Amino acid sequence: MKKTVLITGASSGFGKLAAKTFHEKGWNVIATMRSPEKETELTELESLLVTRLDVTDNTSVRNAVAEGVEKFGTIDVLVNNAGYGGHALFEQFTDEAIRAMYETNVFGVMNVSREVLPVMRKQKDGTIINITSAVGYIGPPATSIYTSTKHAIEGLTESMALEYKPLNIKIKAIAPGAFGTNFIASTFNEDASRGDEEVKSHTQKILTHFEALVGQMMQQGGKEANPQDVADLIYRCATEEMPVHNIVGADAEMIVGMKNSMPHQDFLEKLEEMVMPKM
Ligand SMILES: NC(=O)c1ccc[n+]([C@@H]2O[C@H](COP(=O)([O-])OP(=O)(O)OC[C@H]3O[C@@H](n4cnc5c(N)ncnc54)[C@H](OP(=O)(O)O)[C@@H]3O)[C@@H](O)[C@H]2O)c1
Questions:
Q1: Is any atom of ligand 1 closer than 6 Å to the C-beta of 60?
Q2: Rounded CA separation 206/192 (Å)
Q3: 94 lies in which domain range?
Q4: What's this model's pTM, rounded to 2 decimal places?
């Protein structure tokens, strides 16, 4: 029988590529996004429902899940992909900005999972795939809020994987390194212009160094990191026996491999040498 996947944040980047990948493999796809009226490509595809879902709005979550189940009968796989980042010093994030990022990156994952899990429990089968980040494993500078949201989801995934295994529901995380989707540009936002002179100049030094590093990270093995690798790994996590924690991208594999190969404090010192400018 044809299987069904629901993907959040399918308007661009990994989410859109994943929607196309599942569709090519013959799946029913519920491609959800905040502004479906802007979508022109996915709406042309058969067995693909484009519908509105803002992960911070529980009514839209409930409606999208109900519409998907009504159309395709069930949901076999959920991909919690919607999310965004932000580069600035901790003090430059307002309380409002921090809470907004948590609403999407953390509570958003919980909102959609909470709505889909009863559907999966009913059929005694399902897979939830959470898109986290390499910064769910490490703590680079000028990205503390985003880093903390992705650590939260790595932890959530690990606990839920144990809880739901006896119910035949698999919970997995995929941690990408740096890939040139809309994400990268959108993370260098205006938060970095807040604060007093010391805060602003401190951030600027860190960000100038960090921005150059992100550019290098996207050049993996001499070629631009390909976001399709993430979509392909999402598909593999939906269809093959895969571990709970998965990493994608040469930069992510290198840094997480390094972390796992030495005592934590030694790694933090090496990370400091790599990511911090000389002050
Ligand atoms: N690219 C990278 O280097 C990288 C690395 C590690 C992890 N990630 C993670 O990968 C995931 C996908 O990012 P991407 O790289 O594909 O970037 P992207 O092209 O910017 O896509 C992000 C998607 O999330 C959606 N979104 C944001 N807030 C939402 C909300 N409240 N409700 C529903 N959708 C929302 C965006 O929708 P709109 O079009 O409506 O804004 C967009 O579709 C994110 O969780 C990100 O943290 C990315």
A1: no
A2: 11
A3: 4-275
A4: 0.97
Averaged over successive runs of 10 residues, the pLDDT of the chain (279 residues) comes to 97 98 98 98 97 98 98 98 95 95 98 98 98 97 96 98 98 96 78 88 89 77 87 98 97 95 97 90
Query: Please, where are the H alpha helices in 74-196?
Result: 95-102, 108-123, 144-164, 182-187
Strands (E) located in the chain = 4-7, 28-33, 48-52, 77-80, 126-131, 169-176, 219-220, 223-224, 245-248
Return the bridge partners of 31, or none: 7, 50
Count of the separate structural domains present in the chain: 1
200: domain CATH number is: 3.40.50.720
Give kind and range of the element (H or E) at residue 190. Answer: none
Strands 219-220 and 223-224: antiparallel
From 14, 115, 219, give the residue whose CB has the most ligand 1 atoms within 8 Å, as the site to mutate. 14
Given this model, what pLDDT does residue 131 score? 98
CA distance 69 to 49: 11
- Beta pairing class for 169-176 and 219-220: unpaired
For residue 273, give every residue at least 6 positions away whose Cβ sits within 8 Å of its Cβ, in sequence order, or none: none
